[in-house]
Design goal:
By secondary structure, the protein is mainly alpha-helical. Among the domains are: 96 residues, Winged helix-like DNA-binding domain superfamily/Winged helix DNA-binding domain (Arc Repressor Mutant, subunit A), CATH 1.10.10; 77 residues, Alpha Horseshoe (Serine Threonine Protein Phosphatase 5, Tetratricopeptide repeat). It is built from ten helices and five strands, in the order E-E-H-E-H-H-E-E-H-H-H-H-H-H-H. Strand 4 and strand 5 form a beta hairpin. Helix 1 packs across helix 2. The protein is elongated, with a radius of gyration of 23 Å.
C-alpha cells in the first residue's frame, strides 16, 4: 500500500504494517504489542476498552494484573512507534488509533474498492469492475493478520477477510470474462479451481474459459471432476449454473458469457 504524503500507513492484509510519513516500515517485534495494535486498528477511530483488549490478548483467561499489563504494553508500543505513537491515544474507557484520512488503512481501502467493484458490476461497467477488484486484491501482502497471535481476532476478522478476497477474485475474473479475456485468466483460474474444488461458480468460470479457448475436452473434464467431487463429498449433483453450461458445451453452442 502506498503511503500518502503527510500520512502514515497501517495494514492488516498480511503481516502487521505500520509505516511513518517517510514510508519507513516500523517493526513491532513483541507479539502482544502487535495484538493490541491490530485490535485498535480493527476499530479505528473508536474506543477499544481494556476488557476488549484483554479478550484479544488472553481470550477468557486474563491474568490478575491484566489492566496493568495492558497499560505497560500500550506505553511500550507508543515508544516503539516513535512519531507515529501520537496516533495511539488514551480515552476514558480504553484506547484508540486515530486515522486521518481513512485511506491510511488498507482495510478501509479494501472496503472502498470492493464497493466500487460491486457498483461497476451492477452497471455492467466491466473494465471499471475488473480494475477496482484488481486494485483491491493488490492490497493483500499475505494472509490477513498473518503475524497477529490472537485466536479471537482471527475468528472474528481473518476468516471474513479471506472470504472477501475470494469474492473479489471471482468478481474480477467475471469482469475479465465479460470482456472476452479468457486466455488471460485461464492459468489463474486453474490454480483457483484446484484450491476450491467444490466452489461451483469457480468451476463454471474455468469450464467457460477452457471452452472459449477451444479446449472443449478440458471443459467437459472439469465438469466431470466437479460432479464427482460434489457427489463424493456432499452427496449432491451440480447446480443449475454448471448443468446449463455443460449442456451448452456438449452441444457446442456459442456462449457470449
Amino acid at each position: 500500500m502506498k503511503t500518502p504524503d503527510l500520512s502514515v500507513a497501517f495494514g492488516l492484509l498480511g503481516p502487521l504494517l505500520v509505516a511513518d510519513t517517510g514510508g519507513t516500515v516500523i517493526a513491532i517485534p513483541q507479539p502482544k504489542q502487535r495484538v493490541i495494535m491490530a485490535a485498535l486498528l480493527l476499530r479505528a477511530n473508536k474506543t477499544v476498552t481494556s476488557d476488549q483488549l484483554a479478550n484479544a490478548l488472553w481470550q477468557d483467561a486474563p491474568p490478575p494484573n491484566a489492566l496493568a499489563a495492558i497499560r505497560t504494553y500500550v506505553a511500550r508500543l507508543r515508544r516503539t512507534l516513535g512519531q507515529v505513537g501520537t496516533r495511539l491515544v488514551s480515552r476514558p474507557a480504553g484506547y484508540a488509533v486515530e486515522l486521518h484520512p481513512a485511506a491510511e488503512f488498507d482495510l478501509d481501502e479494501l472496503d472502498r474498492l470492493h464497493a466500487e467493484s460491486r457498483l461497476a458490476t451492477k452497471a455492467q461497467q466491466w473494465e471499471r469492475a475488473a480494475r477496482a477488484a484488481g486494485q483491491a486484491l493488490s492490497l493483500w501482502r499475505g494472509a490477513a493478520l498473518e503475524d497477529i497471535p490472537s485466536d479471537v481476532l482471527h475468528r472474528s476478522v481473518a476468516e471474513r477477510l479471506e472470504e472477501s478476497r475470494l469474492q473479489l477474485a471471482t468478481a474480477r475474473i467475471d469482469a475479465e470474462q465479460h470482456l472476452g479475456r479468457d486466455q488471460y485468466v485461464l492459468a489463474e483460474l486453474r490454480q483457483l479451481a484446484a484450491g476450491y474444488p467444490l466452489h461451483e461458480h469457480i468451476q463454471a468460470q474455468l469450464m467457460l474459459a477452457y471452452y472459449r479457448c477451444g479446449r472443449q475436452a478440458d471443459a467437459l473434464g472439469t465438469y466431470q471432476r466437479v460432479r464427482t467431487c460434489l457427489a463424493d463429498d456432499l452427496g449432491v449433483e451440480p447446480g443449475p449454473e454448471l448443468r446449463q453450461l455443460h449442456q451448452h458445451i456438449v452441444t457446442a453452442d456459442p456462449i457470449p458469457y
